[in-house]
Write the structure tokens for this entry.
Amino acid sequence: VSKWFERDGRVTVGTTEMSLEARPLSGALPERDLVASCRTGDAEAFARLVRLHEAMVVNLAGRLLGNVEEARDVAQEVFLQVYRRLAAFEGRSSLKTWIYRIAVNQCHNRRRFWHRRRRDRETPLDERQLAGPLLAGLPTAASPFDETLRLERARRVQAALLDLCFEHRSVLVLREIEGLSCEEVAIALGVPEGTVKSRLSRAREAMRRKLAGLIDGGNPR
Amino acid sequence: MTCQGVQERLSEWLDGELAAGVSRDVSEHLGECERCTRHAEQLRAVSGLLGELSRLEPADAGAGPLALQLELAGGAVVPASRCCSAPSSQGGRTSCRAC
């Protein structure tokens, strides 16, 4: 089984039979060159592509699915799809936006799977306990009290997010958390920009209502 | 512009997506209407709360998809010509704005 890892600033792709040393990740390769290398089956280039975009995919999936382990699992599927479908990528959007599109589709598929499973086994994804990493990771707050308040805010925001329909949640996560423009969100979701704007408006309004107590009860920032 | 008209446009106003004339009308209304101003502040607070959420990190950064690792270890794999939005079972090529 091969394994990609980094040591002394170098990426190594190793298997039981071979080991291929790669250039440092800091050596930025133009996107089109990286894609071209990946298309030839270059493991080193694909390792670089994964490194560049893995955190973004895991974060997106985590917010859409509300479960860190599910998110990491989906990320594996996303990059498998990225590799297999790279030949069809012609650069109409940025590679990042294209990967976002695949990631959202994979998350949507995963949710549909869980909805079918819920009918059989009554184990809906959204009712699982949110994993700790979803609520942690920000710069350390000034005091344990502040940290507790921050975690409670994060818990309520994530719960409100999961309470939205998938269409509203995905548009909100891509725009507000991932920082995509409305045009990029439209491409990532495969819908017209006008649809993105109307979904954004309804999603923000829904969140405003769900978080009214948090917003009015104290300074959210 | 009425309060309802303003509130329906607040999301786009916050994103800077409104046409200049409409944006000016909204801004002027907000300067005179406390209720709509409060509404806009609450929507801005929602954005702040979402932006405050932490970013998740991969468990094993750079490890890559296990299934792909197995494919690569097993020999050359020719990527399929399939659109990003095509179902896995679809062999034919399609294209979209993203591809």
About this structure: The two ends of chain B are 41 Å apart (CA to CA). Residues 52 and 93 of chain B are 40 Å apart (CA to CA).
